[in-house]
């Protein structure tokens, strides 16, 4: 007995319907991100709000990367007794920031009270909780004062045995935040 053309179309239609349902389910689960990135656990990079970013990759045991605007220079300076400073500077005055990295054996989120235990005279005003980088590392942002440059905007955070202190001029605060959003630990 010969099958009618309708009977041979039905299995193909069922298969197509099932494939469509699977594709829709995959799209709903993975959304707009790459399915491969979910499987291998890669972090989606943050796209900075400045053109043609340059990349700084930490060296000598540092396991982080961040992007910064073109025409900025990055310099690493060792600190006597351990740690380092990373200067991200523009040729224009008051554009750039300083990042100090020190060993720190505590892992909990920083608070103003905890900072004042080690630095009793520090000025901490307008504090707010924030986060840094793709990993959304908890951080504390606040206004302060530096004896050499005057008013500052600072973001401090702790990660894997280090204390990170980012300091800039108040008028460069949003640009520093934008750079710190690109931060990724390797």
Number of domains: 2
Radius of gyration using CA atoms only: 25 Å
The residue fraction in helices comes out at: 25-40%
CATH class placement of the largest domain = Alpha Beta
Distance between the termini: 66 Å
- Structural class of the secondary elements? alpha+beta
- Low-pLDDT regions: 1-6, 13-41
Main-sheet strand order equals: 3-4-5-9-8-7-6
Task: List descriptors.
186 residues; alpha+beta; Protein Transport Mog1p, Chain A; 2 domains; three-stranded antiparallel β-sheet; 4 helices; globular
Overview of the molecule:
With 186 residues, this protein is of the alpha+beta class. The model is unreliable at 1-6 and 13-41 (pLDDT under 50). 26% of the residues lie in helices and 37% in strands. It is globular and about 40 Å long. The strands form two sheets. The protein has a seven-stranded antiparallel sheet with strand order 3-4-5-9-8-7-6, with helices on one face. It has two domains: 5-40; 54-185, Protein Transport Mog1p, Chain A, CATH 3.40.1000.10. It contains four helices and ten strands. The longest helix is centred in the first third of the chain and has 26 residues, at 5-30. It has helices at 5-30, 35-40, 112-118, 173-181; strands at 54-57, 64-68, 72-78, 84-90, 96-103, 125-132, 137-146, 150-159, 162-168, 184-185.
């Amino acid at each position: 007995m010969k099958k009618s053309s309708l009977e041979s179309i039905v299995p193909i239609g069922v298969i197509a319907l099932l494939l469509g349902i699977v594709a829709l389910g995959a799209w709903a689960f993975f959304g707009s991100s790459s399915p491969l990135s979910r499987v291998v656990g890669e972090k989606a990079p943050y796209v900075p709000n400045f053109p043609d970013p340059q990349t700084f990759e930490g060296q000598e045991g540092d396991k982080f990367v961040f992007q910064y605007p073109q025409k900025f220079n990055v310099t690493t300076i060792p600190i006597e007794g351990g740690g380092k400073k990373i200067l991200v500077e523009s040729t224009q005055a008051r554009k750039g920031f300083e990042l100090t990295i020190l060993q720190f054996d505590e892992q909990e989120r920083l608070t103003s009270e905890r900072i004042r235990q080690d630095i009793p005279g520090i000025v901490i005003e307008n504090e707010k909780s924030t986060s840094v980088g793709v990993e959304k590392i908890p951080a504390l942002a606040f206004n302060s004062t530096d004896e050499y440059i005057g008013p500052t905007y600072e973001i401090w955070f702790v990660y894997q045995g280090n204390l990170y202190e980012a300091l800039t001029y108040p008028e460069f605060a949003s640009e520093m935040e934008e750079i710190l959003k690109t931060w990724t630990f390797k």
